[in-house]
């Protein structure tokens, strides 16, 4: 659980990554089927994205050149595209585990694409292909299936680059289903997405550069820091 939260924090800002790749690999290898049951993300995908977030942190700190960083990201992207979710062992024989795996795989590919170019227009075919693959995968998991509670991150990542109103509505509806099932309300993913969608809708017609959800996370942290007592 702690490692998952570490990765989620690093999705918003790689410099926030705390644990080393060695620890992630050790936990992923030693956890057996409980890893996927708790995290949703297949351990192989978890290790790949953890490694690239560590590279991103190193690049942010100036320890890695852009060329070295870019090569690492392209290699990781290739690994994720090549990874075959059908060959993996899952916690149970429920075929919907495959959909969970696919949603995480393409969420991580999407994060790598954004690390490569955060301003790349959301309408880019490769970006929209990832969005479609995530939404298609999550659509196979009904609201009464416990696996739906594992899908917040993939749904959020797809939502950040969703352009169609019906896709945005679908994602918000799925968040509500997850909240009803888990009885835990977390407004942050929905609030961030609504900010992204509003900012994108307000762009001039000739401006199609991406509106990054991470910029709103940064503002949120700055606002919290400025309002903290000294």
UniProtKB/TrEMBL annotation:
This is Unnamed protein product. InterPro entries: Fun_TF. One of its GO terms (molecular function) is transcription cis-regulatory region binding. PANTHER family: LYSINE BIOSYNTHESIS REGULATORY PROTEIN LYS14 (PTHR37534:SF49), TRANSCRIPTIONAL ACTIVATOR PROTEIN UGA3 (PTHR37534). The keyword Nucleus applies. It comes from Aspergillus oryzae (Yellow koji mold). Pfam families: Fungal_trans_2. It is found in: Nucleus. One of its GO terms (biological process) is positive regulation of transcription by RNA polymerase II. The keyword Nucleotidyltransferase does not apply. One of its GO terms (cellular component) is nucleus. Keywords: Nucleus.
């Amino acid at each position: 659980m702690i490692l998952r939260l570490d990765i989620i924090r690093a999705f918003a800002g790689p410099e926030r990554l705390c644990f080393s790749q060695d620890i992630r690999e050790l936990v992923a290898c030693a956890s057996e089927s409980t890893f996927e049951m708790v995290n949703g993300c297949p351990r192989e995908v978890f290790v790949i994205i953890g490694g690239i977030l560590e590279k991103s942190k190193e690049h942010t700190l100036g320890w890695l050149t852009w060329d070295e960083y870019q090569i690492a990201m392209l290699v990781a992207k290739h690994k994720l595209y090549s990874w075959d979710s059908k060959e993996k062992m899952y916690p149970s024989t429920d075929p919907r585990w495959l959909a969970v795996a696919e949603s995480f795989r393409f969420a991580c590919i999407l994060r790598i694409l954004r690390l490569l170019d955060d301003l790349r227009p959301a309408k880019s075919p490769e970006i929209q292909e990832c969005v479609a693959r995530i939404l298609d995968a999550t659509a196979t998991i009904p609201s009464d299936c416990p696996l739906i509670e594992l899908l917040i991150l993939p749904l959020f990542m797809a939502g950040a680059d969703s352009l169609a109103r019906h896709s945005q509505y679908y994602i918000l509806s799925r968040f509500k289903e997850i909240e009803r099932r888990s009885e835990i309300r977390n407004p942050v993913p929905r609030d961030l997405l609504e900010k992204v969608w509003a900012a994108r809708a307000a762009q001039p017609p000739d401006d199609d550069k991406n509106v990054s959800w991470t910029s709103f996370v940064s503002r949120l942290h700055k606002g919290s820091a400025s309002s903290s007592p000294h």
